[in-house]
């Protein structure tokens, strides 16, 4: 007796990210800003399963509120799948099953992780061999954060944030993240920063955004205390202006043992740096008892990769 063939199914996991340091320069006519980012991939993951289908379809579930995630052609992972199909000349479709753990519109690049995972999954499913460079090229067409979700680890991103070079990081960094019920729109936060720069005294955009050498040194040394001196995010002023309620948990964290606290990317998730895993656990317990939704994560972790089974 022959058993019916099980359709092939590829499982890829991709990480969320924090911007340990983020400097924003001037804006171009296409609406994009020059940036300098020190990215770190952290242990909060998106899982994507890809299996052959007649059309391009997606289903989304997870441990976070997924109500804001489109399940049609606007879904970034589905757009990634279509790009791979076009690139490989593949004429079938795919069903993507996404299980999300990264907060939606939270500033941790969850949609970008889904897209990176879909690129890798579809390339594997259809027997393509796009390779690191081919995948990176497609990733950059999908969004500024997508190439880093492919690469993972710790890296410096310039240009739109998509021109990457790996950064050395020793050991692990323990972070507590504080999540919000409602997300922030990335373009709106960037626009608000431009507006604040034009109207207030927060200072002008840097001519050439650059990651401070102190950040790279602290990462290389595996020294969270030194890193705390340098963590910074230019989008923070805009995110806090749009969401003043974030000031309270930031202050609470800093008085409860965090070495430093910043808004992650375009927010509203907060990233709190701690000395080690034990301190992170203590901080998380304190913040949870105060009523904040918090999670302990660590970085760096690997980028999008195929999982066994
Ligand atoms: C805030 C960060 O998450 C930090 O890593 C990224 O800069 C945003 O990356 P992303 O969400 O992948 O961004 P995209 O989807 O490419 O762009 C969304 C919008 O964000 C703004 N954007 C994004 C990246 C960049 N360097 N400058 C920008 O001004 C633009 O308005 C753009 O239309
Ligand atoms: N697969 C996806 N997962 C989540 N959001 C998606 C996806 N595809 C499209 N989107 C849209 O993108 C928006 C931003 O989602 P995402 O969760 O990536 O935000 P983010 O983490 O703030 O992004 P970033 O930090 O890269 O700016 C969502 O509000 C949603 O409308």
Automatic annotation (TrEMBL):
Domain GHMP kinase N-terminal per the UniProt entry, residue ranges: 75-153
Residues annotated for ATP binding in this entry: 103-113
Residue ranges constituting the GHMP kinase C-terminal domain according to the UniProt record: 216-291
Entry EC no(s): 2.7.1.148
Superkingdom of the source species: Bacteria
One family name in Pfam for this protein: GHMP_kinases_C
Catalytic site: 17, 145
GO molecular function, one term: 4-(cytidine 5'-diphospho)-2-C-methyl-D-erythritol kinase activity
Function noted in UniProt: Catalyzes the phosphorylation of the position 2 hydroxy group of 4-diphosphocytidyl-2C-methyl-D-erythritol.
The protein's name in its UniProt record: 4-diphosphocytidyl-2-C-methyl-D-erythritol kinase
Species of the source: Microbacterium fluvii
């Amino acid at each position: 007796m022959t058993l019916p063939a099980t359709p092939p199914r590829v499982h890829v996991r991709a990480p969320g990210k924090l911007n340990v340091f983020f400097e924003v320069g001037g804006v171009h006519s296409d609406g994009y800003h020059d940036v300098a980012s020190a990215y770190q991939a952290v242990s909060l993951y998106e899982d994507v399963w890809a299996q052959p289908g007649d059309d391009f379809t997606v289903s989304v579930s997870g441990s976070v509120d997924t109500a804001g995630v489109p399940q049609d052609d606007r879904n970034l992972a589905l757009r990634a799948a279509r790009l791979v199909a076009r690139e490989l000349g593949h004429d079938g479709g795919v069903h993507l099953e996404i299980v999300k753990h990264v907060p939606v519109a939270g500033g941790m690049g969850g949609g970008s992780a889904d897209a990176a995972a879909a690129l890798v999954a579809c390339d594997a499913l259809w027997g393509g061999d796009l390779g690191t460079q081919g995948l990176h090229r497609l990733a950059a067409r999908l969004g500024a954060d997508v190439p880093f979700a492919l690469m993972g680890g710790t890296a410096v991103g310039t240009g739109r944030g998509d021109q990457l070079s790996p950064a050395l990081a020793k050991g692990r960094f323990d972070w507590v993240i504080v999540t919000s019920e409602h997300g922030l729109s990335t373009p709106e936060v960037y626009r608000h920063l431009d507006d604040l720069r034009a109207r207030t005294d927060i200072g002008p955009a840097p001519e050439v955004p650059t990651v401070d050498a102190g950040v790279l040194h602290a990462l290389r040394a595996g020294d969270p205390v030194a890193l705390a001196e340098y963590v910074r995010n230019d989008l923070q002023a805009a995110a806090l202006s749009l969401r003043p309620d974030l000031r309270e948990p930031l202050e609470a964290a800093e008085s409860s043992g965090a070495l430093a606290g910043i808004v992650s990317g375009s927010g509203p998730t907060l990233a709190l740096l701690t000395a080690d895993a034990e301190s992170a656990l203590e901080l998380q317990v304190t913040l949870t008892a105060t009523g904040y939704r918090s999670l302990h994560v660590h970085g760096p972790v690997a980028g999008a990769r195929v999982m066994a089974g």
